[in-house]
Structures are given as structure tokens and as C-alpha cells.
Amino acid sequence: MKPHLVLIEWNDSHSYNEWHRDNPARTPLKCISVGYLMYNGKKVKTVAGHVAQDFQQRGAEMSIPASAITRISRLAVKR
User: What's the whole-model pTM score?
Assistant: First the structure.
């Protein structure tokens, strides 16, 4: 099965590594990821940003908790 190219919108946490005086975050950090949907599970979705032509090798893979995802859109690929 050939994976689909998708755009995933999801919410992440904020973090600060140093002392600061800014107000604390009040909303999640909105993120967008684009890649090939390699795994479409109930608890996690995994996308790969780079794939070999046969989809057997991939790189820049990231798994996103399904609970953080707000929208998934399938993208058209023209070759």
C-alpha cells in the first residue's frame, strides 16, 4: 500500500528553558506537519518527510499523538 501525502494540524506544548518574565502560555502551540502518512493508528499518526521511491526507506519520521491532532488533510501529488 502506498502512503498518502498529508498535512496534519496539531497542538503542542510550550516550554521555556531559561528564566523569563513573559506571561505563561494560555493556548497550545499550533503546529503544521506535512509528510507521508506511514502509520494511521487510533492513538498515534506517523508521518515521514522523506521517502524513497519504493517507500521502503524513509527519513524525518515523526509520530504525533492522535489526541493532539485537530485536522488531517490529504494532499494531491502530481508526478
Answer: 0.86
